[in-house]
Amino acid sequence: MTRAEEFEDLRPLLFSIAYRMLGSVTDAEDAVQESWLRYEACLTEPSSVKAFLSAVVTRISIDVLRSARVRREEYVGPWFPEPLLTDPYQDPARSAELADSVSMAALLLLERLSPLERAVFVLREVFAFSFREVASVVSRSEAACRQLAMQARRHMDAGRPRFEADRAERNELARRFFDAFREGDVDGLRELLAADVQLISDGGGKAPQWGKGVFGAENVARAFAALLPRFVQIGGVMEPHEVNGQPGAIFHDGDGKVVNTWTLDILDGQIQTIRTVLNPDKLGHLGPVADAWTVLRETKLTRRSTD
């Protein structure tokens, strides 16, 4: 097998490590590509290509994450990860854990960790690397890695919500939600939303967003019921789609361009949080991106003409 073939076999794993480290599809793809360049330039053949490339992509991601910290502190409004439609790394025996680790909520919790804690947690808890392997990747002793893992688990467990365990039940609730949303059914929406539900958006200062958020079942239900009919009138389409391993949707304008994505956090049979990503910089990997300001303006004009 050639180096290129070996690399392509490992690409899904490398991307999945980098994405969980960085919360960015674009940065993860760049980290994977840089890993290939370093592997291609390596004069000696590694004893384990998987170990070598996992170490390279993790170290690159740590460096990127350290430089990204300053940018995220200066970010306008809430920061969410770039939406991921499909995780290329598949392990049927651990599919539930892998899906949970890529959820918006989990990635936001990972943001609380130091770059080293994040690397240790991702490699050990998500991809089941041994502590010996983790220690080699991050250039720390096994004892230090065990300490880092313990600290990371403590941070993650303290903030981790208990998501709906039954995926079939969760997906059925999401289907009912999107059906009610399409129909503008305020009562049907209200029934599925937690009393203290939150609707929060990431526009990054480059797209309209819901102010600081919309809170409470009544407010969120009425906002949605008023929104979709007018969005549909201008040719908008809502496409239910799994996003970051969670029930979600992609919104397209009349030309088929991406307007935003949604993800739903579901707990105890109700929707607790709805996160929308509108920042055009985070949507380009999904296809051509719409001008959200234009979509909003057209929607408002439709509202005035039908009032």
TrEMBL record:
Annotated InterPro entries: ECF_Sigma-70_Domain (IPR052704), NTF2-like_dom_sf (IPR032710), RNA_pol_sigma-70_dom (IPR014284), RNA_pol_sigma-70_ECF (IPR014303), RNA_pol_sigma70_r2 (IPR007627), RNA_pol_sigma70_r4_t2 (IPR013249), RNA_pol_sigma_r2 (IPR013325), RNA_pol_sigma_r3/r4-like (IPR013324)
Keyword S-adenosyl-L-methionine: no
Alphabetic keyword roster: Sigma factor, Transcription, Transcription regulation
Domain called SnoaL-like: residue spans: 174-265
Residue ranges annotated for the RNA polymerase sigma-70 region domain, each copy included: 7-69
Sequence ranges assigned to domain RNA polymerase sigma factor 70 region 4 type in this UniProt record: 105-156
Domain of life: Bacteria
Family named by the database record: Belongs to the sigma-70 factor family. ECF subfamily.
Assembly: Interacts transiently with the RNA polymerase catalytic core formed by RpoA, RpoB, RpoC and RpoZ (2 alpha, 1 beta, 1 beta' and 1 omega subunit) to form the RNA polymerase holoenzyme that can initiate transcription.
Protein name according to UniProt: RNA polymerase sigma-70 factor
Source species of the chain: Actinoallomurus oryzae
